[in-house]
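On to our target:
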Amino acid sequence: MKRKEKEKNFAGPQIPTRDFYQVLEFLVYFGPGILVLLICRVLAGNPMVSLILAGLVTVWPLLKLFLARFLAPIRKKKDPRHALRSGPFLFDGLLFWGSPVLREIRKYGALSRSLDMIYNFHGLFGIKPEKLEDNWWKVSPFGLLNRAIKAWTETWMTMPVAQDVTERLVMVKDMIVEIVSEIHQSHPAGEIKILAIAAGTNQDLLLAVRELKEKFPGIAVKVVSVEPDSNFALHRAKDLRRLWEIPEDIFINLFSRASSDPESEKFLWRILQEKGIPFSDFDLVVCIGLGDYQGRKLRRFLQMLDNGSAPIVTANVSNNWVERVFLHWFIQWPKMQYLSFERYGEILSAILP
């Protein structure tokens, strides 16, 4: 199968319907608690004890998050997840061992390192995650347990909540290719400048540029990326660029936190001006991560566009309880903003003509 067809048709290991996944997710979340309830009811015969134990098993990740918020100021940690790192049994723990893949996703939730694991676990783009070792599931001296850990991991990585992340990457890549292709066909001799805000490893942009170079060999593209994750995203972006043989001068990485407040030293407009990059020069603005985590501030960021005519590619996850439970309780990924279609529409309508 050709690379582009593989990306288009990706859905991970196939399960018949999405409804099946929804039921399976519910059972994974609450099944252990229900199982404990039934076992205790049969063995102990005490309904109150059974309910308490079942409740603790079910809500333990949430209780742990509350405890982490209490411990964070005592341990001088800004992020509560850094104050209490023990993994929830229902996600990445299995007896005294756990899945290194799932632990990596939870530990670095909302960062590029976690997304790199999700994007590339199935090898969709011909690469594997940077931190994924060969035989990663062999973490214990027991072969049966190792196979269980592998199966447990593949189950989670096949869930819609994980697949949707990768499928959205492909959708964003396709949208960038479509917009830039239209701009190039209108002005074939000009350089197309793209501003990427909170773009992580730039994997969607790198894939888009690779496809554009194949489609239009003479196209001139310049990408300016503003991203705060310099611990992982910077070198991973460089590795992907070299792997996909994309010219080095196409990407300018400005790894700095940015603000929409004109009084701030980190005002995005000021950061770009200091680098000699006028904000009004951009032909396209991509801000996927910004929409996910700063959706309510998106208006202020995008109103900084001087020319007001550049297309904008952004996104937000709609408000749904299944994913909220998954991210907030089990992965301890509490900063994701879930906006309804109506609320996100109000934000965008205030920006777009």
The beta strands are 93-94, 97-98, 192-197, 221-226, 251-254, 284-287, 312-314, 317-318, 338-339. The two ends are 42 Å apart (CA to CA). Confidence is low (pLDDT under 50) at residues 5-16.
